[in-house]
């Protein structure tokens, strides 16, 4: 039996412009450059350049069009300092509205194009909502070919090892096994897969039958390649492979004995047990341990032949301090000069004067209007992004003013996302998107914005101290401890409490782990 029900629902949906702004806001400067380049390629109505000259010529030629075609953002593009001035003086005003010299008409009132050089058919089949698509949202053949600010990685570790394999005088089967082994090396330079599993891979993928001894024989060849220790199956083998290439003196011999006979004790830093078991003098064990500690436990990440690409850090903000005043500016790559193509805007004017308006021409101008809207949304989203970034960073600078004056970590104030969101009148999620992947260049170095956010720790004075400050003091205490008698977490807790920080032992352990500092037993040195 059919029923007809009526119910009331309240839902909230994001507009395409909001989706575009959110996605642009959370990407860093390096990715923004690639995103702008992608948009310029897919949207012919968007182009680089400053539109001040065009509008000035229109004003001189036709005074009657001054109000209709005035560009309120011309000063924004012409003066780099306007960003900061608008931000400081008019935080409450909307600064993102962009006027395009195009009459707002429906597709039924579209105009004929007078630009015969522009072939609209090349774009008619494009995605209608490409204006707010981002990387990963849809298909893109050139997505992996975008230029990014990456270091030169022309020689990767795998390529380097394959080159060495070509000079190893192996037969065809052994070379295939060698390639399979090299392909099984992980980012640290280890082969962690079992050799029997690699034998199965060879059988199924390349139809090559190879026994484990055959694979192990080729593995020894691969382990002789540079860098030393490559292709090891565990840390012990990695360190021994590196020792084999050193001059075989007494120190190297003692180091090999420590790794072969007392590796478990070595990993736990039970040096007295090692000394007793191997009957070594104090000086002998010190020299052997010092030699082992100089070896590389991760040969896959050494030199210019590392596994992955190294990406440069490009700061999103530049903060300078001059005569007691802070000057905050956006990286110029965050403020590109973009404009709507004049050729596209002229199409509507030409269509107004056309006497014949057929269906084909209406479809073409509908497409043009869609691209113009997409370009306008993109420019507007870029400028909203600039404004939001500046408002957020300016609030952080005011909140952490003492730190930015001299770079002293102990002067960092407790600050959470809610503090900044409340001050600038935005949602916490917006501040989170700004802080997650952005960085600022100061006179004391480049810091990620997340660095300035920390929880508060109660003190005897009644004021809260930043967890960054507590971590900084904890690190100083550990660096100044006696290396033969490192401080336990209990002793560190008492020392911090004596300095006025009300902190528990478990919190000390958490901060120590966040600083990548091992427990007291593993910090012990001879």
From TrEMBL:
Residues 39-122 are annotated as: Disordered. PROSITE patterns: SIGMA54_2, SIGMA54_3. Gene3D superfamilies: Homeodomain-like, RNA polymerase sigma-54 factor, core-binding domain. GO terms for molecular function: DNA binding; DNA-binding transcription activator activity; nucleotidyltransferase activity; sigma factor activity. PANTHER family: RNA POLYMERASE SIGMA-54 FACTOR. NCBIfam families: rpoN_sigma. This is RNA polymerase factor sigma-54. GO terms for cellular component: DNA-directed RNA polymerase complex. Belongs to the sigma-54 factor family. The gene is rpoN. Keywords: DNA-binding, DNA-directed RNA polymerase, Nucleotidyltransferase, Sigma factor, Transcription, Transcription regulation, Transferase. GO terms for biological process: DNA-templated transcription initiation. InterPro entries: RNA_pol_sigma_54, RNA_pol_sigma_54_core-bd, RNA_pol_sigma_54_DNA-bd, RpoN_core-bd_sf. Residues 89-113 have a biased composition (Basic and acidic residues). Residues 366-524 form the RNA polymerase sigma factor 54 DNA-binding domain. Residues 151-344 form the RNA polymerase sigma factor 54 core-binding domain.
């Amino acid at each position: 039996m059919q029923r007809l029900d009526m119910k009331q629902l309240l839902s909230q949906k994001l507009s395409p412009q909001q989706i575009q702004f959110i996605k642009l806001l959370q990407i860093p400067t390096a990715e923004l450059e690639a995103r702008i380049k992608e948009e310029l390629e897919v949207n012919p109505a968007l182009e680089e350049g400053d539109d001040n000259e065009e509008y000035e010529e229109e004003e001189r030629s036709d005074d009657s069009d001054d109000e209709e075609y005035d560009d309120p953002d011309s000063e924004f593009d012409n003066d780099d300092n306007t960003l900061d001035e608008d931000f400081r003086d008019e935080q409450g005003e909307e600064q993102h509205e962009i006027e395009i010299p195009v009459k707002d008409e429906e597709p039924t009132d579209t105009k004929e194009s007078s630009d015969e050089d522009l072939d609209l058919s090349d774009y008619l089949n494009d995605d209608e909502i490409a204006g707010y698509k981002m990387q990963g949202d849809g298909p893109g053949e050139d997505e992996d070919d975008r230029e990014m600010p990456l270091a030169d990685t022309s020689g990767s570790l795998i390529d380097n090892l394959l080159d060495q394999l070509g000079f190893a005088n192996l037969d065809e089967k052994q070379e295939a096994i060698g390639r399979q082994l090299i392909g099984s090396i992980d980012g640290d330079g280890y082969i962690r897969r079992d050799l029997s599993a690699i034998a199965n891979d060879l059988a199924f993928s390349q139809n090559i039958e190879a026994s484990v001894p055959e694979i192990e024989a080729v593995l020894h060849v691969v382990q002789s390649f540079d860098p030393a220790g490559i292709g090891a199956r565990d840390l012990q083998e990695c360190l021994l492979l590196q020792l084999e290439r050193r001059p075989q003196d007494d120190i190297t011999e003692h180091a090999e004995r420590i790794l072969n006979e007392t590796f478990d004790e070595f990993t736990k830093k039970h040096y007295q047990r090692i000394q007793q078991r191997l009957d070594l003098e104090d000086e002998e064990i010190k020299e052997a341990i010092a030699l082992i500690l100089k070896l590389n436990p991760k040969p896959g990440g050494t030199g210019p032949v590392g596994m992955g690409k190294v990406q440069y850090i490009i700061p999103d903000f530049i903060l300078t301090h001059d005569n007691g005043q802070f000057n905050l500016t956006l990286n110029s790559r965050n403020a590109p000069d973009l404009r709507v193509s004049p050729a596209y805007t002229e199409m509507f004017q030409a269509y107004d004067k056309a006497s014949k308006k057929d269906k084909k021409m209406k479809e073409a101008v509908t497409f043009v209007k869609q691209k113009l809207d997409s370009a306008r949304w993109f420019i507007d989203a870029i400028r909203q992004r600039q404004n939001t970034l500046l408002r957020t960073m300016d609030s952080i600078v005011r909140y952490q003013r003492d730190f930015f004056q001299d770079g002293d970590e102990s002067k960092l104030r407790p600050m959470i996302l809610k503090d900044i969101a409340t001050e600038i009148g935005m949602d916490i999620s917006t501040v989170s998107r700004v802080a997650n992947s952005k960085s600022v260049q100061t006179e004391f170095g480049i810091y990620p914005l997340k660095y300035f956010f920390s929880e508060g720790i109660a003190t005897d004075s009644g004021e809260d101290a930043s967890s960054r400050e507590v971590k900084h003091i904890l690190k100083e205490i550990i660096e100044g401890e006696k290396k033969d008698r490192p401080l336990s977490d209990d002793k560190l807790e008492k020392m911090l409490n004596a300095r006025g920080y009300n902190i528990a032992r478990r919190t000390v352990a958490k901060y120590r782990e966040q600083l990548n500092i091992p427990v007291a037993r593993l910090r012990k040195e001879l």
